[in-house]
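Supplementary Methods, section 5.1.

A reviewer requested that the exact input to the structure prediction be made available. We therefore reproduce it here, unchanged from the version used in the analyses.
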Amino acid sequence: MTLPFFEVEKLTKNFGGLKAVDQVSFQVGRHEMIGLIGPNGAGKTTLLRLISGILKPSSGIVKFKGEDITQSKTNDRVNKGIATTFQIVKPFRHLPVYQNVMVSCLSSRAKKRGDWVKTVNVRASDALEFCGIADLALEPASVLSHGDLKRLELARAIATEPELLLLDEPFGGLNPAESKLIARSLKRLHKGGRFGKLHSDGPAMIIVEH
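The structure derived from this sequence is encoded token-by-token as follows.
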């Protein structure tokens, strides 16, 4: 019997008397890209925070590649292959853009899986090139537009070499041109395009949107 690549079983989160997530169960295949839709307040972001380990569930189970990771810390989940982009981007605002991505390149997972013939600087630049903001590499993150911050957030996530990518409203607040750029990067990444070359497979994705 083949174990599901990723699954949640009856995942529930209570905040006092408020039930934000109520016994949610689903599976994601290794090569799937799925959408999670719903209005404001439906619990979409809370669910992603449960999956990424930022929040602990009141009950239920999270499994990744057959392993129960319900109680794993966020950094442990990143090193297992789960990365997240957030609706509200919080970069290191006074660091240059490329140094924001270098932090991700220094994760244990990235060190194991990355091409270390290249320096960390070059790998960070490759991630920025993939997301279309290499020209802003030396700028402080504080000067980036909302659209460029979204692309920086994606670059930071993919630099950890994820197998499952969680995206919380990646198109939120973007104009049509910016949305098209993000969508193009996500499609290419999902098909295996990575840092200027093709891999055998890209990450599975869960995309939260309205």
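The chain has two domains: 6-84, 90-164+173-203. These observations are discussed further in the main text.
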